[in-house]
C-alpha cells in the first residue's frame, strides 16, 4: 500500500524578534551576573546561527517571572490557534475539506493540556466525529517524524484514508528565569516557537512523495542526554554537551543499515531533510554527510530563519522541498534526533 505526503504547511506565532533585538532583554536578565559570564551568554546567542525567533509570548512575557500555570495557560491558548491555522493551511494546499481526514496525530512536548489539542481541533474545524485521535508527547525533537511514522503505519493498514500530523512547540514557554545553567541558556539561544502540519494519504488518486520506509533507532544508556525535568517553575531543559559526539559515534549504524534494508545506499539519496537541532549538531552531521557528497543547506536555512522549534522543525525543512518541487524518482532521507536518546528516519521518493 502506497502512502504519500500530499501537503505540508507551517504556522508562525505572532511575536518575533531578531537576535539583535533580543540583546537588550538579555542585558536586563543578566544584570547582577559577572561581566565575563554575561559576555559569554551573549556570545552564545550571537553564534547560535539563528537570526530570528518566533514566540507565542512577547519578550516582556518571556523575561517576566510568571508561574508555570500562567505560562502553560498561554501555551494552551496559543497552540489551539496555531494548530487550527496550520491544519487549515495544509488542507487548502492539499485541496481537501476538513471531513476528508480519518486520523489526526498531534505532537508537542513543551506544555501540558488535557484534553489534548486534537480534541479542540475536532470541534473548531468540525472534523468527523469518528476520526481516530493520537496525541504524541514526551518525544521532543524527534516527534515530528515519529508522528509521520505512526500515520504511515495506520494508512498502510487502511487503504483510501488520510491522516494529519500536527506538530506544535513553544520552547520559550519553558525558559527558566532563575536558571543560569548552560542547558537553559543554550536552549534559549537555539530554540523558537512554531507549528507545522503534514497530510499523508493512502488514496490512490492523491499525489506527493511516497514514504518508502521508516524506522527508529534507540541508543542504550542515553536517557540523560536530552529532555525536560518537571520542576515547580515548569519544564527545565536537560541538554548534555555530549549529544553531537554521541550522534557522530552512532551515525553509520543509524544511516547505512536502514537504507540497506530497503535496497539503497547513501549514494542513492539526493535530498537530506534533517532536523536542525542546533549549530553544533548541524556541523557534526554536515561533516558526516559532506564526506558522502551531500549537503544540508535547507536545514541550516530553517535554523537561521526560525531557530529549532523542536518536533515541528523538520516539517519546515520538508515544506521547502515540497513547495519548490523535486524531480520524479529522486529520493530523500528525513532524519531527526530526540530524547531517549533516539533517531527517527523516513525514506521518501518523489
UniProtKB/TrEMBL annotation:
Domain (Chalcone/stilbene synthase N-terminal) spans 5-202
Q: Name one GO molecular function term.
A: acyltransferase activity, transferring groups other than amino-acyl groups
Q: Which Pfam families match?
A: Chal_sti_synt_C, Chal_sti_synt_N
Keywords (A to Z) from UniProt: Transferase
The answer to whether keyword Transferase applies is yes
UniProt record similarity statement? Belongs to the thiolase-like superfamily. Chalcone/stilbene synthases family.
Q: Protein name, please?
A: Putative naringenin-chalcone synthase
Amino acid at each position: 500500500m502506497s502512502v504519500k505526503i500530499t501537503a505540508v504547511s507551517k504556522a508562525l506565532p505572532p511575536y518575533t524578534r531578531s537576535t539583535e533585538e533580543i540583546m537588550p532583554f538579555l542585558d536586563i536578565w543578566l544584570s547582577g551576573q559577572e561581566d565575563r559570564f554575561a559576555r559569554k551568554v551573549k556570545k552564545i546567542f550571537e553564534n547560535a546561527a539563528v537570526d530570528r525567533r518566533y514566540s507565542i509570548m512577547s519578550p516582556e512575557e518571556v523575561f517576566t517571572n510568571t508561574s508555570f500555570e500562567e505560562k502553560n495557560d498561554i501555551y494552551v491558548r496559543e497552540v489551539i490557534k496555531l494548530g487550527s491555522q496550520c491544519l487549515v493551511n495544509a488542507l487548502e494546499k492539499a485541496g481537501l475539506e476538513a471531513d476528508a481526514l480519518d486520523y489526526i496525530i498531534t505532537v508537542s512536548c513543551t506544555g501540558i493540556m488535557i484534553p489534548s489539542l486534537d480534541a479542540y481541533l475536532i470541534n473548531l474545524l468540525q472534523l468527523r466525529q469518528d476520526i481516530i485521535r493520537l496525541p504524541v508527547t514526551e518525544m521532543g525533537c524527534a516527534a515530528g517524524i515519529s508522528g509521520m511514522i505512526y500515520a504511515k503505519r495506520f494508512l498502510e493498514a487502511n487503504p483510501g484514508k488520510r491522516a494529519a500530523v500536527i506538530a506544535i512547540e513553544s520552547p520559550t514557554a519553558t525558559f527558566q528565569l532563575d536558571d543560569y545553567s548552560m542547558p537553559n541558556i543554550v536552549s534559549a539561544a537555539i530554540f523558537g516557537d512554531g507549528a507545522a502540519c503534514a497530510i499523508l494519504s493512502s488514496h490512490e488518486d492523491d499525489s506527493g512523495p511516497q514514504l518508502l520506509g521508516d524506522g527508529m533507532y534507540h541508543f542504550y544508556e542515553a536517557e540523560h542526554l536530552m529532555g525536560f525535568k518537571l520542576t515547580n517553575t515548569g519544564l527545565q531543559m536537560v541538554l548534555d554537551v555530549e549529544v553531537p559526539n554521541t550522534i557522530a559515534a552512532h551515525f553509520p549504524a543509524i544511516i547505512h543499515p536502514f537504507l540497506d534494508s530497503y535496497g539503497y545506499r547513501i549514494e542513492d539519496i539526493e535530498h537530506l531533510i534533517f532536523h536542525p537541532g542546533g549549530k553544533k549538531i548541524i556541523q557534526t552531521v554536515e561533516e558526516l554527510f559532506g564526506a558522502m557528497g551531500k549537503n544540508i543547506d535547507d536545514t541550516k536555512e530553517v535554523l537561521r530563519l526560525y531557530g529549532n522549534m523542536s518536533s515541528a522543525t523538520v516539517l519546515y525543512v520538508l515544506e521547502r522541498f515540497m513547495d519548490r518541487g523535486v524531480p520524479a524518482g529522486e529520493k530523500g532521507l528525513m532524519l531527526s534526533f530526540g530524547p531517549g536518546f533516539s533517531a527517527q528516519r523516513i525514506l521518501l521518493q518523489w
